[in-house]
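Here comes just one.
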Amino acid sequence: MSNRRTFAIISHPDAGKTTLTEKLLLQGGAIHQAGQVKARGEARRARSDWMKIEQQRGISVTSSVMTFEKEYGGETITFNLLDTPGHEDFSEDTYRTLTAVDSAIMVIDAAKGIEPQTLKLFEVCRLRSVPIITFVNKVDREGRSGFELLDEVADQLALDVSPQSWPIGMGGQFEGILDFASGTVARPEGGSKEFLGTRDENPDIPEQWAEEAELAQVGYPEFDLEAYRNGDLTPVFFGSALKSFGVTELIDAIAAHAPPPRPQPSEDGAIAPERDEVTGFIFKVQANMDPNHRDRIAFMRQVSGTFKRGMKLTPSGLGKPIAIHSPILFFAQDREIADTAEAGDIIGIPNHGTLRVGDTLSEKNDVRFTGLPNFAPEILRRVQLKDPTKTKQLRKALDDLSEEGVIQVFYPEIGAQHIVGVVGQLQLEVLISRLSAEYKVEAALEAAPFATARWIKGDAKAMSEFESFNRANLAKDRDGDLVFMAKSPWDVNYQQEKNPDLAFSATKER
């Protein structure tokens, strides 16, 4: 258990997150050739981007899990890397993924600094005190000064910054990366100026860059393990994922400093990883990873205990035990059967709709993990079926995709058309693409007369009165919970004032 490192990579779109993911896997020996996201043809298909729309557009739209191992100091460290979508339209998937990790790597573009989505994701990490290592990417291109970037991280994120390396020049003047711990410089080689393994142990650094590096070392706090693990300090590495600079140092830092499995919040307080009973929670469900088998995989973050293949666990949503005969460890869409798993591991559980996001699994069914919310959708659309004979397939597809968290689906109390809700526009493109590719259902989306939705709770009498007056604006979500479909934010405020005994919630915790 103490040798597990479960971490995510977070960034704004195009900061180089997927490229860094591949280089980490390459360094970890998990793959033998890195496919570049922006390359052509087959090379474009990043290993962590396996969905058709991802391969077409060169972006990540779903979280994926990759497990690999590496030797450090005579011990085998197991890395569980969760690659998350960078695009803000998929922030719900990213948020839920961040509930399953113990640390994160934050990737920043050296030319752009901290961008809006980076800031949002950082705030999610801060809510859970997730420790962060910062990687300033693309220093082989023209960018802002290292000091400016460090100060921006310190100011905007209210974190102490501790640089662990320094670029020797940037862009056209780039001559390598100085590693403060070893005093060596990783040098660019060949026509492509990549890092091919050459480290200068007695580097002759031009005076300007030597002075900068010295100032960076003395002008910022030294690395403090306790401050980092408490989420108060971030070690900062400079590099280029595309040219392989700084990647080894990054994975070494995760192995040496990132925390092993941490306690997880539950209704009865934090559950420690040392607890004997096997417990875990489902943070993601993915359908059709293998289109040939129409499979459904639930991703479980194991919180405590030693899991053994064939063990019976009880899902909180089902109430009766299920035997887990084929638990899976992942390498993107590749997989292998796991005979055992420890706290911190991410295992996949094949199932047919019995497991859902937010479910707790445990041996005794006496634990409920908390903190996986649904967010009120910001875009609502009606689904228009092109072939009316496929109504049943559409319902199945929408149920599957809502279980995954790709969309939310609402069934109006009056009217037959399903309404889908999403946080971002790109989710709608993913919906239409996956309906066609995976379910052979051709559909279109049309405007719905609603702008947002709120979950309603209250005593039976108040609920009944509200329903009788507002049936045309009510729907049920896929759990059967009542939802008020509002035409505008003003509508929400008006109903809240008019019905003080009811709670109109923008989030719903699972």
